[in-house]
UniProtKB/TrEMBL annotation:
Protein name: Biopolymer transport protein ExbB
Keywords: Cell inner membrane, Cell membrane, Membrane, Protein transport, Transmembrane, Transmembrane helix, Transport
InterPro entries: ExbB/TolQ_transport, MotA_ExbB_proton_chnl
Keyword DNA-binding: no
GO biological-process terms attached to the record: protein import
Source taxonomy: Bacteria, Pseudomonadati, Pseudomonadota, Betaproteobacteria, Rhodocyclales
Length: 254
């Protein structure tokens, strides 16, 4: 029992130097940051489950204002609500200035709405990807931070052996234990960050795909006054693929 207490975590921390403690502090900060980002995204994904029903209620509304009100109630501050609001504002702006003899009055409604939808999707994409760079950085660097602690712990062990002239267990076990703990700690920080990054990236791709489909329907509605009719899978895929190029092209390509 005394031997286990002598080489426990408290003992290892007490006999560690400044470098090991700094590595441990950095790993703790990285772990707290990654778990905070993970929890924030989990809460957001739980909220995002309401978006599908909100979009269907939007299309069931009698007019645009009622649809926007339903989106604001069901999915406040969501990418879908922002997309519909921006598209409606663009269409209304063109409608108000269509008869003016100015540069704004000569704008094409279809092009103006397309640019507004594209801008909204770009802003929503930036918000969805917020924090992913940090998660990727933590997942890729945490093992190396732990490895640095491992190398330093082994170096510490060799220094103790050299100073004592004896490779006894009490001179080596502590620093080697530090080295192993730093390695394990680095993996403990990195693995959840990598798994969360992959899961969040997949969820973002699915949500952006739904947002893109909603943008196509909005574009058709603002251009023709009716929602895009359902098509067979093959035809719908070809139609959507062609329109994706329009909505995600650079502004100069429109």
């Amino acid at each position: 029992m005394e031997m286990q207490e002598a080489f426990g975590l408290a003992h290892l921390w007490a006999q560690s130097d400044l470098v090991i403690r700094l590595v441990a502090f950095v790993l703790v900060v990285m772990s707290v940051t990654s778990w905070y980002l993970i929890l924030v995204r989990v809460v957001r994904q739980l909220q995002a489950r309401r978006y599908d029903h909100a979009v269907e209620e939007f299309w069931a509304a009698s007019d645009l204002q009622e649809g926007l009100l339903r989106l604001r109630e069901r999915a406040p501050d969501s990418p879908f609500e922002a997309l519909a609001r921006q598209g409606g504002a663009a269409a209304e702006h063109v409608r108000q200035h269509a008869h003016q003899q100015t540069l704004g009055g000569k704008l094409d409604t279809d092009e103006f709405v397309t640019r507004a939808l594209r801008k909204s999707i770009a802003l929503s994409t930036a918000r969805l990807e917020s924090g992913l760079t940090m998660l990727a950085s933590i997942g890729s660097t945490a093992p190396f931070v732990g490895l640095f602690g491992t190398v330093w712990g082994i170096y510490h062990a060799l220094v103790n052996i050299s100073a004592s002239g004896m490779a006894t267990l009490d001179k080596v076990a502590g620093p080697v234990g530090e080295a192993l703990i730093m390695t394990a700690f680095g993996l403990f920080v990195a693995i959840p960050a990598v798994l969360a990054y992959n899961a969040i990236s997949r969820a973002n791709r699915l949500e952006l795909s739904e947002l893109d489909a909603f943008a196509h329907d909005l574009h058709a509605w603002f251009s023709t006054g009716s929602r895009l009719a359902a098509q067979p899978d093959g035809a719908g895929a070809r139609e959507r693929a062609g329109k994706t190029v329009v909505l995600h092209a650079t502004p100069g390509a429109a």
